[in-house]
Amino acid sequence: MISTKSARLVIHVFLVLFGLVWIYPFIWMVFSSLKTNQEFLTSGTKLMPEGEFQWENYTDAWFTANFSGYFLNTVIFTVATVMIVIILSSLTGYALGRIDFPGKKTIMVCVVAIMFIPKGYTIIPLFKLVNYMGLDDSILGIIVAEASGAHVLFILMFASFFANLPKSIEEAAEIDGAGFLTIFTKVMLPLSMPIVATTAIMQFIWTWSSFLVPLVLTISKPELRTLAVGMQNFVQTYAVDFSGMAAGATISLIPVMTIFIIMQRYFIEGVAGAVKS
Amino acid sequence: MAKNLELEQKQKAESNSNLKTLKRKKTIWAYIFLAPQILVFFIFSAYPIVMSYVYSFYEWTGIGPLEDFVGLGNYQQLLSSPRFWNSALISIYYILGTTVLGVGGALILAIILNDQKMNGKGFYRAIYFLPVVTTTAIVGIIMGNIFGITGFFNQFLLNFNIIDKPIPWLTDPVLALIILIVVGSWKGLGINMVYWLAGLQSIPNELYESAQLDGAGFWSTLRHITLPLLKPMAAVIILLSLVSGINAFDLVKTLTNGGPNFATETMDLFIYNYAFSSQLGGGQVRMGYASAAGVLLGLFTFVISMIFGAASFGKQIMKLKGNKKSKGGVKA
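YS: structure for the whole thing
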């Protein structure tokens, strides 16, 4: 569409410069985390620290400000949530996409209707529910609260994937004497790996960044806080420790950014697929 | 012969009943597979949705039993509260602002990146998408520093003599809202860009080729082919952007916390403050009042979705009636 070479060069220059501005906050964050607090305040717009890199900011954040605990909580919270979501969505998607059974239409309609129900502020009842169940003392409470919604997008992705597999796959396995469960776990689920991967990566990034659920559910439980919530706490407690703040933010963001950069194809395709359907 | 026929019938009946038991077995398995999701859905989704309505009819601090039934009292109080209306207005500004900037900017970027002969598409896409995957609550804190009175942005402007004294980006009511909208748009632009790219890729290449043969330039191709064909997609993208703007909590909480003096308090922060922060919620926790505001916010979201849903579906139905062959072509 854009025909001339020089026009394309101008666009490249623009895209690179603008892209640099676009991700500058993250670059700024990383370099600020290597400065002393004194330097942070006086260095103005200089990016590079003048003295040595202050790696202590990281050890301080990790050990003293308890980012190690937040990090561990976030990993447990995220991995458990991702696993639960994959199990629930693949089972539901398989039943809806592959099997004809009475009541299927009703369930399909319900699944779609869920997206349109006006929800109130469900975090209050959820908060109360987790308390009633006695789960407020463990990370399990945050996990079930986060993982338990109906993940309509993932269910539909699994359902349409399983629905489009040829019938002959099952027939061949049935002739070999494989039961329903064996067919699912040994044949179908392995085939659906691309969907599993997309679900895993999208849910990972969402859960890692989840804020309201862990914030509310750990209101009186500092030891259960995740990175997103712990950061909030850090800023309130150490208001003037700017480079510590930058170090904590870097610790919190590097894992998601890395995963995104490695797996971006799955993620972007998942997002694009979501809007198409 | 007769014997053979009998045998055949017998076999048929047997395989029929086999098929039936197989089918019944499959039905049972289907329900077993659905059971965990259904169970979890009723406990952790349906119950909270119902209770979020129930709570809204009570005056309740969240401790002790639900006793103080006030009927529509919370709603009446909300509708006559200037702070509530202010938060609704702030939410609307935020939603409209992020949609105009985030969706509009994303369209421009997507059109540039959709150019067939463009190199480094994947690289640019990743760069502009990066903010989307970062934790909003962390980004809010970083941005709070960058736009602080002694923050990077002011230093930068001072260094280049663009301004001669620091600008209170986050402590001026209007500027704080603008910063919130700019950061929110920046954060969400990448996802809209991917949506637009998906839409652009569904436009068949032959159309561009024949436009080129007809001597159409970049702008007329854009105006007469690209934009009209993106219209159905546009409704969906705008709707998604509007709805995601309603949930601005993570960013508002960490970037301005509603300040200065409630000037950037969006509806979801208003609800949170009444439900969980006695300090910002007017002295005491009021879960029922917050729930009522939550119901109003839910209805607000519902109405927006319905209006846009009806608009886009209505158009599609009209189109289908107009020319039935225009279906298809929605492929990557």
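YS: worth flagging: The first helix of chain B runs from residue 2 to 55.
IM: good catch. Also The longest strand of chain B covers residues 58-59.
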